[in-house]
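Try it yourself: sequence plus zinc ion, in.
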Amino acid sequence: MITLLDGFRIVDATSNFIGHVVVENGVIIDVIGLDESLEDKKPLFSKYLMSATQIIRGRGDLYLMPGFIDMHAHFRYPGFSEKETLESASLAAARGGWTTVVCMANTNPVIDTIELAADIKCRSDALRLIDLYPVLSLTKGMMGKELSEIALLKNQKAGYMPLLLSEDGKDIADDEVFLSALRCAAELDIPVSCHCDLQNEAAAIQRAINLGLKAGCPLHIAHVSTKESVDIIEKTKWEHREFALTAEVTPHHLLLTNDDALRLGENTFGKVAPPLSSKKDRSALLDALDDDTIDVIATDHAPHTQADKEGGAPGFSGLETAFPVLWDTLIDNDEFTEQSLSHYLSAAPARILGLDDRGLIRKGMRADIVVLDPEKKTTIKFADFYSRGKNSPFLERDYNGKILFTMANGRIVENGW
Ligand SMILES: [Zn+2]
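Structure, out:
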């Protein structure tokens, strides 16, 4: 079955042109520029037109981008179905344009065995929505004492292999335990995502970097929120070019400040870890994306019930809101281009996670595609969330840009056209 996406503005990290995308069996089998289809590729284009079972027309003004890849989300499965389920989170991801998601291990039980991670992957695959990769925690039960099954991964010939390892919001206090976990990761060549938010963020990042350098493992710093942290990452990237150090920022840290936390309730609906920072920090984060000190934008989707938020649980639901708020604020204010946004949301995370079959619109890549209308608006409303956690700092506002549909592995998984 051939799907022809006919006449779209095709934007990814390295290109921006009007053309057609041909999808068959979950794969992009051809990408044809508009000028090409008029000349040498005309017979081929006519063949696709004749054989397509589905033709979707972009009128030359709708955007077609690679599906987004989220390196940091909390799906709350297993154990916290009042906050989120695999299905509600996957639907939220699909609506938000996220076709590949890495979910964190702070669940109940903690994802500390290969069997549990594989079971979650399998259940998620059965939903046929997005491509989900659960992380494995570094230690058993995230207790910071004994290593989880990460030590067994290197002997695994087949079966589930995580793309990222992480102890989530818990730092391992014992240097020796932390170091042995990082050495395991080095052997596997799997990045470790460090959240560094228990104590002073900059100090925790510096410690993770020191141990990461010792172990020689790829290290990924989650949700960077201050200028001080940016400075440490920038300095390390300059001084240790061989060290695979990467970093992420969330849409809320990029777009909001502590004034917003006060407005929303510092200890309730505006509470997030790490907390929203100052204007100075916010502009340092924007500059850090621009000069590649920070590599990717990730949601840190952290759904909670309203009661949990009232009780001070930190986090925002971000999967459904990330794209419209970024598009509206950053593209419309000329902070960066459509192409660079695609780099932060798709190409860069694909590279860090070692997913060479996605992240760009290219022949041979997985057909993970987001189609959007830059002229339409998205209204973020409490009642509309697919996620069970409906707490967002971006509620009740219109944002320029609307995702019309999301295609994952060649299937339309969410259609809001
Ligand atoms: Zn998190």
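One thing you can check immediately is this: The pocket of zinc ion is lined by residues 72, 74, 104, 168, 300, 302 (CB under 6 Å).
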